[in-house]
Amino acid sequence: MIAGGEKTTKPRKRIIKAIRIDVDQCNGCRACEVICSAFHASPRYGSTNPERARIRVIRQPLRNIFVPVYAGEHAPAECAGRDKYVIDGKEYDECAFCRASCPSRPAFKEPDSGLPLKCDMCESDPPLATPMCVQWCLNHALIYEEREEELPEEETQTDELEVGLQSLADRFGLHRVMDSMERLTKKV
Amino acid sequence: MRFAETGFNLEVDLSTGNIERVETDPKLTELHLGGLGTSARILWDRVPREVEPFSPDNLLIFSTGLLVGTPAPGANRTIVSTVSPQTLLMAFSMMGGFWAPELKHAGYDKVIIRGKSPKPVYLWIHNDKVEIRDASHLRGKGAIETAEIIRRELGKPKAQVAAIGLAGENRVYFASIEHGRSSASRLGIGAVMGDKGLKAIAVRGTKDINLARPAEFLDLCNQTLKYIEIREQKPIPGVMPILAGLGSPQEMKVVDEEWHTTNFVWGNARTRRKDYWTKEIETQWRGTQESVRKRLVSCYNCPMKCGAIISVPGQSDYMMKCFSKLTYTMAAYSDLEFGFRIAQRATEYGVDAYSAPQVMAFALELHEAGILTDQDLAGIPADNEGKFYWLLDRIVRREGIGDVLADGTWWAARRIGKGAEQYAHNTIKKHEQLPLKLGMLNPIYFLMYSTGEKANITQIEGQFPQAPFSTREEREEFVKDWIQVPHERFKQYFLDWESRGEHSIPFYPTVEMCCEIVDWQEMMHYIDDSVGMCAGLSSFPLKPPYHIHNYPAIISAASGLDLDEVALTRISRRNRTLVRAYNNRRGLTRADDRPPEDHWKRRFPELENKLLDTYYEFRGWNPNGAPTRECLADLGLGFVADELERQGILTAGDGAQRTGA
Question: Which of residues 124 through 153 in chain A touch B, CB cutoff 8 A?
Answer without folding.
Answer: 135-139
